[in-house]
Amino acid sequence: MLKKILIFLWSLALASSVWGAAAAGNGQGLDTNTASATTAATRVSNDAAERRLEGERRFHENCGRCHAAPHKFPPRMMATIVRHMRVRAMITDEDMHLILDYMTQ
After folding, report:
1. Cα(75)–Cα(81) distance, rounded to whole angstroms?
2. Is 1 helix (H, G, I), strand (E, B) or coil?
3. H-helix or E-strand spanning residue 99
4. Stated pTM of the model
5. Residue 104: burial class (beta carbons within 10 Å; 0-12, 13-18, 19+)
6. Rounded distance between C-alpha atoms, residue 35 and residue 60, angstroms
7. How far apart are CA 56 and CA 84, in angstroms?
8. What is the mean pLDDT of residues 66-81?
């Protein structure tokens, strides 16, 4: 029983020293992780906004000749519509995905 308690205390001490070293990092602490997570989230939202704008541009180039932008449909319905129109309008797979991103946002 004493052996189990000593092993538990040793593992607890080891875990706390590892956690303390990880928290200290390179002297920058946990704020760096939070800042990098915020930066990554901002980058993702900027990428999504750029994809949406590119999708809107491609919608007007490819679809806008015959169609005005429709009202919002559920994403599954819009995906079916875009896939069917892709064949008729002969747009690329990339164009289809960008247009779909624009239409479902």
Report:
1. 10
2. coil
3. helix 93-104
4. 0.56
5. middle
6. 38
7. 18
8. 86
